[in-house]
Amino acid sequence: MNRGTINKSRKDGNKKWYRLDNAATIVPATARGADTRVFRVVCELKEQVDPAVLQEALDLTAEGFPHFNVYLRKGLFWYYLDGTDKRVIVEKENREALAPLYVPGRRNLLYRVFYFERRINLEMFHVLSDGTGAFLFFRRLILTYLSITKGTPQGELEGDISSIAEQEDDAFRHFYSKQPQRSQLNRWMKVKAYQIKSPQDENMQSRLVEGIVSAKAFLALAKERHTTAGVFIVALYIEAVMASMSLQDRKKPIVISVPVNLRQFFPSATTRNFFGAITIGFDPSTYDGDFGTLVKSVKDSFAEQLTKDNIQNNMNSYSELKHMAFIKMLPLFIKDLGIQYYTGRTRRGTTSTLSNVGKVELPKEAAQYIDHFSGFMCSFNVQLCVVTFEDRMSFGAVSVYEDHQVLMNLFRKLTEMGLEVELATNDFDRV
């Protein structure tokens, strides 16, 4: 971490500005109402948080991620990120979860850090980063905090040795190759999937639900069915959705969108957005109750879509709009209207989203002080986030629905399979 160079640049007033990456381009126009496009990552420690030390750790961590200390500004043709010397001030949690971070016309930083008892929370506007990039930042924050409070070594983990230039890179632009047609975009717009139905909170406030199980026990169940934890999670989630559907509803397909970390397929150390998505569809009218059949269907869909050509086309789909000459010439307000129309069409093709962040790795000296990590993402529908740390696998979801029927179906299924589920929620009326 070259702190001297960063500090000198700030003192000289040479603030940078950044173009939005291709995935971030659609975010400002679609951040509306309860869908604030804010996500939260959480670290629960085994003791109370020291807010003064957390602020010190955040200040040190932020120096290595200057591209996160920005405002979102409007240009004539595109949004852009404008660098600032303003810093995030750690606060005790005292506001609605996943509240808006971007307010047009205001110069707000696009992430916040707060705490409550043993929990440290990072909330971030999706313009800045995806879950993988945010966890790289958050992991460094936690390691720095523990190095101050416990004297643990910070160490060098995967993703920590990249330069600031590599972290700031727009990987979509770097790896884009033009496609002859927009087949993927067209396919997303044609599908009409089942939509989860539930009464909404009258104040449209976000309700968080978290369930924690043993990661080892969960993986053992997946292995019994000769599949991976990722496939197993999606199959369980589809069955949970089916359990909430009426016979009439079962005429529509269930389509689960599964974000894919593109860093697994392209050599990039970016901490900005760099993800694609595959869609796992299933026709509930054909389900005979054989869970093994459902697992095989999901497994086959994963194998079919996670190919080199499909991932390249998927990545290109996030870049196409920005590379079309006639779109480049349109004023921003017209682009926003077009994006809102387009996303409204594509959203009809998705029932829910399931994001498997994967395993959070930390040095053992630091890991002993942490209970678990978890994640939550605001969405127009329900988005389930799965995060694993040591033997703790967290299922986190947020919605404005008054009940949590699909999630409860999922947790009941896990219990029937022999797993113990720890539940937590900020919704004390219904679980």
| Mean pLDDT level | 87
* Helix-residue proportion: 25-40%
Tell me about the largest β-sheet. Answer: 7 strands, mixed
Outline: globular
Structural class: alpha+beta
How many DSSP-defined strands?
15
What is the topology?
Elements (H helix, E strand, L loop, with lengths): L2 H9 L5 E3 L7 H4 L7 E8 L5 H13 L6 E5 L4 E5 L7 E2 L18 E6 L2 E7 L5 H19 L14 H5 L2 H5 L7 H8 L16 E8 H10 L4 H14 L11 E8 L13 E8 L8 H15 L2 H10 L2 H4 L1 H4 L3 H16 L4 E8 L4 H4 L2 E8 L5 E7 L2 E8 L5 H12 L5 E4 L6
Parallel strand pairs: 5-6, 9-11, 11-13
Antiparallel strand pairs: 1-4, 2-7, 2-12, 3-4, 6-7, 8-14, 8-15, 9-10, 13-14
Quick rundown:
The protein is an alpha+beta fold and 431 residues long. The protein contains 16 helices and 15 strands.
Task: Please explain how this structure is put together.
With 431 residues, the protein is α+β, with helices and mostly antiparallel strands. The protein folds into 2 domains: 3-174, Chloramphenicol Acetyltransferase (2-Layer Sandwich); 179-425, 2-Layer Sandwich (Chloramphenicol Acetyltransferase), CATH 3.30.559.30. It contains 16 helices and 15 strands. The protein has helices at 3-11, 27-30, 51-63, 131-149, 164-168, 171-175, 183-190, 215-224, 229-242, 291-305, 308-317, 320-323, 325-328, 332-347, 364-367, 405-416, and strands at residues 17-19, 38-45, 70-74, 79-83, 91-92, 111-116, 119-125, 207-214, 254-261, 275-282, 352-359, 370-377, 383-389, 392-399, 422-425. The strands form 3 sheets. Strands 10-9-11-13-14-8-15 form a 7-stranded mixed sheet. It has a 5-stranded mixed sheet with strand order 5-6-7-2-12, covered by helices on one side. It has a 3-stranded antiparallel sheet with strand order 1-4-3, with no helix packed on it. The protein starts with a helix and ends in a 6-residue tail after the last strand.
